[in-house]
Amino acid sequence: MRGGLTSLGIWSFLGGIVPATALSVVLSGPTDGRTSEPHALGAKETPAMATRPVRMVMSAAFVSESGIDLYENIAHHLARKNGITIEVTTGLAYSTINSMLQTGAVELGFICGLPYTALRDEPTPRAELLGAPVMKYPRYGGRPVYFADLVVRSDSTYHSLEDLRGRTFVYNDERSHTGYNAPRHRLMERGFTSGFFGKVVRSGSHEESIRMVAAGEADASWVDSLVLDYDREKRRGRAGEVRVLESIGPMTVSPVIASPDLPAELRAALRRTLLGMHEDPDGKRLLDDALIERFAPVEDDQYDEHRSMKTAAEKAGIVAIR
Fold first, then answer.
1. How far is CA 89 from CA 20, 21, 81, 195, 201, in A?
2. Quick one: fold of 2-141+254-302?
């Protein structure tokens, strides 16, 4: 991961506050003399595009940060098919992403499920669901679901969550459902409400958490199964050096959302394009590259489990993992 920061540019980490060692890379962008302005998509293909670009933010762990270009290509497809330009901004913390969607600084997002519920549950909802990916692997059963996988080093002696008492746990972001919300709910279920780990640290991304576990800098982390799948399939990062101890799920996967600030007609058109990608030759090729079978419609109540896990853990006194 650290060796790939230059090529990743402003993407850097999927949906997290980055470690101090990488912060300057995220803020300054690529080191080849280019600026870190948002990447405009669709301009060449759409001479009749809208007068102002539609702004998209990517934060959810749909795929490892090493595969961000795949999701930029999906955004490009949406832009080209709808005669608009989309500017993509990446590499921001979940809280920053939500603030941008709340204030109208961006209008589209690939975001985590828990931050989506926060936006949706505002007095005036700030997010509308467009769809969510159905991954190709049999594990997902043809549904828009995923798992939070608890990973440890492949050669470790840990065989259960109980073996990790007093050990070092790493997570990606406090607002992540996969890396934080679902894990603290699991700790509550096991009765570990008064403290369990010896040390808890934040990494900024699932891929960095995987690297830290593989390198022995942390003993365990709950990570998004989509990130783990992609890195193992593409042999990226250090996913091949960790094994799954247990899993939480299946749970509804991170969605693609639109702001109500976008015209209803455009929101509907983007939804149709997204949900029909698997029937379009160019769209299907992009989905295949990202290990996606299709994008499927999802409803708000499919994220109620995210809400209920948060409420139950906090009522049990587990506001923070410890």
1. 20, 21, 20, 37, 26
2. D-Maltodextrin-Binding Protein; domain 2 (3.40.190)
For range 70-87, the mean pLDDT:
94
Distance, first Cα to last Cα, the chain: 26
pTM across the whole model: 0.84
Q: Are 201 and 189 in contact (CB under 8 A)?
A: no
- Domains of the chain: which residue ranges? 2-141+254-302, 145-252+307-315
Domain 145-252+307-315: which topology? D-Maltodextrin-Binding Protein; domain 2 (3.40.190)
Provide the residue type at 245 as one letter. L
What are the distances in angstroms from CA 75 to CA 51, 90, 102, 274? 18, 12, 21, 9
What is the distance between the alpha carbons of residues 93 and 239, in angstroms, rounded to a whole number? 23
Which pLDDT score is estimated for 296? 98
Q: Which of 63-67, 88-92, 113-117, 293-297 has the lowest mean pLDDT?
A: 63-67
Q: Beta-carbon neighbour count of residue 133 at 10 Å?
A: 31
Nearest Cα to 148, choosing from 255, 229, 16, 247? Answer: 247
The answer to whether the beta carbons of residues 75 and 68 sit under 8 Å apart is no
Cα torsion 214, 114, 58, 11: sign = negative
pLDDT tens per residue, range 240-285: 999 999 999 999 999 999 999 999 999 999 999 999 999 999 999 9
Q: Is 122 exposed, middle or buried (0-12, 13-18, 19+ CB in 10 A)?
A: exposed
CB 167 within 8 A of CB 219: yes
Q: In the numeric block, which tokens belong to residue 213?
A: 């576990």
| Pair 144, 252: CB distance under 8 Å | yes
- Report residue 39's pLDDT band, with 50, 70 and 90 as the boundaries: low
